[in-house]
Structures are given as C-alpha cells and as structure tokens.
Design the sequence.
C-alpha cells in the first residue's frame, strides 16, 4: 500500500505543479500580449479619451461602422460591441474602461429583443474572455463572484478556468494570442464588417410580448450617471422575414428615450436577418449619427 | 457518472478508502461494499434503472441455483430459456421495440396499408447490452456445466454490477470474474500502480484524442454535403480514432480501476489498428464481445465443424447480429455486413489465421509489406465506420459517394473555425505511443517511465477537451 500511495501522491503532485505552472504561463501570455479580443482590449486601454463608444452584442459589432462615425463626429469613436453581450456584460466592459481612467463622453447602448429579454448575467461566450484577469482585476473578480457559482474554483484552483473553457481559452487560443492574431478589426475601430447576404429560410423569431423589466438596464444607467456620461439608447433594425415587429413598437412605447433606428432599410441591407452587411451598416451608422448628433 | 467527471473523482477515493481500510478485514464486507458502491454508481444516471439490474440479478441467481439442483434435461432447458428470455427480453424491449415497430409500419405502408401505431418513449438503460450478456454467459456456462452455480448471492450480485465494467464492458465471463469474488482481495501495490497508469492512459485517450476528434467529426458528418473529399476522408479517419480511443479508453480505465481494487478483467482491445488483415482486426477489437458471440452463438450454430459453407453462414450471422447488438438501426447491420464482406474471403481461402503474432515483433519499425497491410486494413475498417457513424444508410452512402468524388476544391477546409489538420500531430504522437507499447497494455514502462507520465499529464491538461465533456460512445449501446 505504501508504494502505491507514494506513487499516487507523486501523480497528484505532478498534476498540481503542472496546473500551477501552466496557469502562470497562460495568464502571463494573455495579460502581456497584444489584445486578441475586446475583453483584453478594454482591460489594457488606459487613459484614453473617447467621444463615443458603442456597446452591445454582435448587432452592434457588425452594424455600427465606428470609423465612419468617427469621421462624422470628428471625435474618437470605438465599437466595443461583443457577440453575445447582454446589458450585464456591457456594464462590465464600461466599468473596466472607466476604472482604467478612460474618459468617455457618450455611450451608445443598443436595446433590442435579445438583450432586453435577458435577465441573466454571465453570458459565457463573452465573460470567459475576462477570466485570465480574475486574479489581477478587482472588477472582473467581483463580477464572477456575483454571477458565477463556480467562482471559487475559477479563482483559487490553478488552471481550472483554462481547462474548463478549453475551447475559448485553451492551447489554441494561447498560441494565436502569442502570434498576435486579433479577433477584432483594429483598423475598423472595433467594427466587424459583414459582406453580402446569407439569408436563412426560416422565419426569424421575435418575442410577442415585452419583458416586464430588464434588471440590468437601470444599473447601466446608474454607472453612466455616476460618471457623467451621456447615455444614448437605440434600437436597430431586423429584416422583413420575421414573426412580428410589434415588439419594437412596445419597446419604444415603454422606453420613449430609445432612439428608433429600425426604419428605412430593405432586405438587401442585411447580411442575415439580425445583422447588417457593409452597405446596411453604413446606412444605420449615418442614420444614428443624424438622429443623435453628439 | 462518467469516469472523467468531478462526481467520480469524489466517489472513487471514498470507495477505495472504505474498501482497503475498512472492508478489507472481511470478504463479505468487501463484496457488500462493491455491490453498494456499484448500485450508487449505476443509480447516479437514473435510480429507476436499478430495478432492472436487480431483477436480472435475482432471476439469473435463481436460474443458476435451479440448474445446480435439476438433472432433468427438459427442466434444465426451461430454466436456461427463462434466463435467456428475461435478459434478451429486457434488451429487446428497451433497445429494439421502436425499431421493429417502425420497420413493421414501413413494411405495411410499402404494401399500401396504413397503420396508425405510435412508438413508445423508451429510455435505454445505460449498460443494458453489457450486463445482460454478462449474466447470460453465467446461465449458459452453468447449464453446460462449465461452471458450478454459486450459492453466494452477494458474490453473484457483485459479479453482475461491478462498477468499473458495468456500463461499457469488458463483458466478463463468470468463469473469470466470479471466482475472484470468492476470495478476499489483498492489496497488491504493483498491480494497483499498474492500474493507476492504465487509468491515466485511458483518460488521455478519452479527453485528448476521442473528444477532440469528436468536435470535428460531428461537424463534418452533420454538414457532409458542404465538405470536399479531403475533409470527408479526414472526418472518417477522425471517427476511426474517436471510436477506438473512446471505447478502448473506457476499457483501459475500467481495467485499471479493477486492478486498483484487486481484480483482473479480460483485455478488450489489443491495438486493433495495427492489424494486417480484417481477421486479425476482429481478434483485437472489442475482444470480450467477439469472443462472447463466438462461444455462445457461433459454436452452438456449428462453428466451422460442419463444412466451409456452414462456417461462412455462421460467420455472416455473427457479424450481422454483432452489428445489430450495437444499435437499433440498419446502419449497424450494414456495418456488420461490410465487415463480413471482407472477412469471409479470408475464411474461404483459409487465410483468417495468418497473423496471430504481434506485428513487427523483434523490430522497431514495420516492413513496407506490413505497413501496406496495416494501412489497407485500416482503410477498409474506416469505410465501414462511416456506416456506424451515419444516422441512416442513405446518409452513409451519400458520404461515401462524396468522398469518392475526389473533389479537392477549396483544399483544407475550416470546420468549427479550426483547421481540420490541427489534430494530425496529436494523432501522430498517439500512434507512436501505441506502436511503442504494442506488446503491453499501456506505454508507462521502461527507463523513461516518469518522463512519459509527466508528459502525458501535461498533454491531458493542454489538449484535453473539458469544456464540452462527451458521453462515452458505447454508453448508447
């Protein structure tokens, strides 16, 4: 029994030492390399002045041409939209930017049938990108402490967060981060253009009824108020092949402060039912500028 | 609970400590702990499944006791048939009811008659294909007087439900495993350490090779009409490695865990992809099942004693039944048939036992002829796997037609946002490891043992697929 236990302990020691060393290596690479994604970008963006930033899901990332907006407003703009980001995740991004002493004059937040209906936080495809910083950034740490049941494992078990999210934070991602391969278009100021059309045959579903209340929207507002940021809420278009657009009427009725940018588009402006192509994004961005003129 | 899960990582040390530090004083206590732990393990999936395995245990124990007392030939046959009907009845109902119903309806519809019968929403109990065959082997061996029936119900229960091999084999013979429950197990460090190494190697196969291949395989097979021939070839090859590493990985963990508890299970895989022909492949792949069919179906049908053509018929039956055992779908029957198609010519020409030794024994590398034979055998096996993996026979044929269209337009394709060739270095490493250890059960031996161990642990951490743990393929059988 003794020799078996010794061997077993050796294996466990090798395992934990490996996890510890790999955790240090992975974290060092993620936190020291050129930003590969917008999470890393916002964590490393410091002491910048932005006239306008855009927050939201892929319907912001693919729909708002920040370079165009930048030229129209004659002030620095950046598209921090992230695929899958809800209002909670957008709040996290904003808080990190502000904590890094960045000055922001206007924040554009898209409100739509996806994020308004979501009353849950910690959308994994977004927040996983912040995990390398859980031990070095208080805001990230507090976010996971509040929203993730596995927080203790993520924080205190070496390498656990990388292993359990191997598809998003594993060896491939580390390798691509070392290569300096970026997932966002820095030249386009965070806007990710989509070319052409990729229409789905099925009808794009939109909820019939509006959520009573989104629990994260007021929190987002409070962050803006507290930091003297001008908050502009807007809602963007969807294609014609949907169940009903009554949802947007209800949304605008309930929140008249939301700028309506859903009209004046045809199906040729869309890449798929929820996302604009290059032409559509240009139209949408121009319309948004005209209606808000920051 | 899966072997590669947190639940099992907590379950195992508790059972291990209780087994060797509390229950080791007493044989009955040891066996009782095995039964209790095994029922917890099995009930973790669905506690309702326990009723089936307990019932099956009771029936076969009673049948065994009856056969031990009964000398009348007819009554002995009746007892045997009770065991066969109960076990195969469970299997038939849970696994094949809807298949037979759907085909019955299809046949009636084909002849212009409509039948309005809806199938049942049946949940397939995990491991039913394995433990029913295991208990059947007991009844049959007792009937043939190859084995004395046991009076020890606790030992018999432990034999039926032994958790390391309960849900996906190896399908143990009572003649091998049951006697091990009659003697108190004493701890053997060397065996336990060897078992630990085998568990680690099995884990490597599952989380690094099998689950990584699965990511690509699922995408390629789901979107096969959008793939070029190169991608489809790689998809088939990846599936060949997925199913091998998934199943043999599980077997390694089962055998390794058993060694840690003082038991010796039969070997289930013997490096089948190094086979030089398909006959050799079938002596090295899922050995516990193929020998079960040989002993309990092939031989009773006459085996090869009644002439060449009876032997061919029996072989064909075995392959078709073996295919059908895997699942209620024509694809499995086709897969069995394809293997029979390549096996039978070897049988007819008396070349089915050409290769009984280890390939390239005494050499570090295979000869060109051996390499060619292995690659050819691997290719035909992989073509058969396309049927095994596809959802329907039609889809399998479509896959193969597209594959053999030799359309390489677009070159290396991206699948799930990743280059499909990125797995190849890992597969190459794996093949080297297997080749290096082809005379043994795992690669942890020799001068560089500790280095290999550290290396494999690092590989598991770096390349293991933990974010989307996949069930073992054979759990669905």
Sequence:
């Amino acid at each position: 029994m003794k020799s078996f236990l010794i061997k077993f302990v050796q294996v466990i020691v090798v395992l934990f030492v490996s996890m510890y060393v790999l955790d240090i290596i992975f974290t060092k690479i993620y936190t020291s390399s050129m930003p590969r994604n917008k999470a890393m970008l916002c964590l490393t963006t410091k002491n910048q002045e932005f006239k306008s930033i855009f927050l939201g899901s892929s319907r912001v990332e693919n729909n708002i041409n920040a370079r165009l907006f930048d030229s129209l407003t004659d002030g620095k703009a950046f598209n921090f939209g992230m695929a899958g980001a809800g209002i909670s995740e957008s709040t996290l991004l904003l808080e990190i930017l502000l904590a890094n002493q960045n000055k922001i004059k206007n924040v554009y937040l898209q409100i739509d049938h996806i994020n308004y209906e979501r009353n849950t936080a910690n959308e994994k495809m977004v927040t996983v990108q912040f995990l390398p910083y859980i031990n070095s950034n208080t805001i990230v740490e507090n976010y996971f402490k509040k929203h993730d049941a596995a927080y203790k494992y993520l924080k205190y078990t070496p390498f656990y967060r990388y292993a359990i999210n191997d598809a998003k934070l594993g060896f491939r991602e580390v390798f691509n981060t070392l290569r300096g391969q970026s997932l966002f278009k820095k030249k386009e100021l965070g806007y990710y253009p989509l070319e052409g059309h990729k229409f789905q045959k099925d009808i794009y579903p939109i909820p019939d009824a509006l959520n009573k209340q989104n629990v994260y929207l007021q929190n987002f507002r409070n962050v803006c108020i507290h930091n003297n940021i001008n908050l502009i809420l807007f809602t963007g278009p969807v294609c014609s092949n949907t169940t009903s657009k009554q949802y947007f009427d209800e949304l605008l009725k309930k929140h008249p402060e939301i700028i309506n940018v859903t009209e004046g588009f045809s199906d040729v402006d869309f890449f798929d039912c929820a996302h604009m192509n290059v032409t559509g994004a240009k139209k949408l961005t121009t319309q948004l500028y005209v209606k808000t003129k920051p | 609970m899966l072997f590669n899960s947190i639940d099992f990582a907590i379950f195992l040390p508790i059972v291990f400590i209780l087994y060797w530090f509390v229950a080791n004083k007493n044989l009955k206590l040891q066996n009782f702990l095995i039964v209790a732990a095994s029922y917890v393990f099995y009930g973790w999936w669905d506690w309702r499944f326990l009723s089936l395995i307990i019932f099956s245990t009771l029936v076969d124990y009673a049948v065994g006791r009856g056969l031990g007392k009964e000398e009348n030939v007819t009554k002995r046959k009746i007892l045997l048939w009770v065991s066969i009907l109960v076990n195969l009845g469970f299997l038939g109902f849970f696994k094949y009811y809807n298949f037979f119903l759907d085909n019955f309806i299809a046949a009636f519809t084909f002849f212009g008659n409509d039948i309005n019968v809806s199938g049942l929403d049946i949940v397939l109990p995990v491991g039913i294909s394995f433990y029913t065959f295991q208990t059947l082997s007991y009844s049959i061996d007792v009937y043939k007087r190859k084995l004395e029936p046991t009076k020890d119900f606790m030992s018999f229960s432990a034999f039926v439900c032994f958790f390391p091999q309960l849900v996906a084999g190896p399908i143990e013979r009572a003649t091998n495993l049951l006697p091990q429950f009659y003697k108190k197990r004493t701890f053997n460090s060397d065996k336990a350490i060897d078992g630990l190494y085998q568990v680690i190697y099995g884990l490597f196969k599952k989380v690094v090779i099998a689950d990584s291949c699965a990511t690509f395989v699922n995408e390629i097979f789901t979107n096969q009409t959008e793939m070029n021939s190169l991608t489809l070839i790689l998809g088939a090859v990846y599936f060949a490695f997925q199913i091998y590493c998934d199943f043999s990985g599980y077997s390694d963990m089962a055998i390794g865990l058993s060694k840690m508890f003082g038991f010796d299970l039969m070997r289930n895989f013997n490096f089948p992809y190094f086979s030089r022909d398909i006959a050799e492949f079938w002596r090295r792949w899922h050995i516990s099942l193929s020998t079960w069919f040989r002993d309990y179906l092939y031989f009773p049908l006459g085996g090869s004693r009644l002439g060449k053509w009876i032997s061919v018929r029996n072989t064909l039956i075995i392959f078709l039944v073996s295919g059908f055992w895997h699942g209620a779908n024509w694809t499995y029957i086709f897969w069995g048939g394809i293997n029979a198609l390549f096996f039978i010519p070897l049988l007819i020409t008396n070349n089915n036992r050409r290769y009984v030794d280890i390939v390239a024994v005494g050499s570090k590398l295979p000869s060109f002829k051996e390499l060619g034979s292995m690659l050819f055998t691997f290719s035909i096996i992989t073509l058969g796997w396309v049927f095994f993996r596809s959802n329907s026979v039609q889809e399998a044929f479509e896959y193969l037609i597209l594959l053999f269209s030799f359309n390489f337009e677009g070159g290396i394709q991206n699948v799930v946002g990743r280059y499909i060739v990125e797995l190849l270095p890992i597969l190459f490493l794996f093949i080297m490891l297997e080749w290096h250890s082809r005379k043994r059960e795992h690669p942890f031996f020799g001068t560089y043992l500790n280095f290999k161990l550290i290396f494999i642990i690092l590989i598991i951490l770096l390349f293991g697929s933990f974010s989307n743990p996949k069930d073992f393929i054979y759990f669905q059988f």
Q: What stands out?
A: DSSP finds 14 helices and seven strands in chain A. The mean pLDDT of chain A is 92. Chain A touches chain B through 22 residues (CB under 8 Å). The first strand of chain A starts at residue 49 and ends at 55.
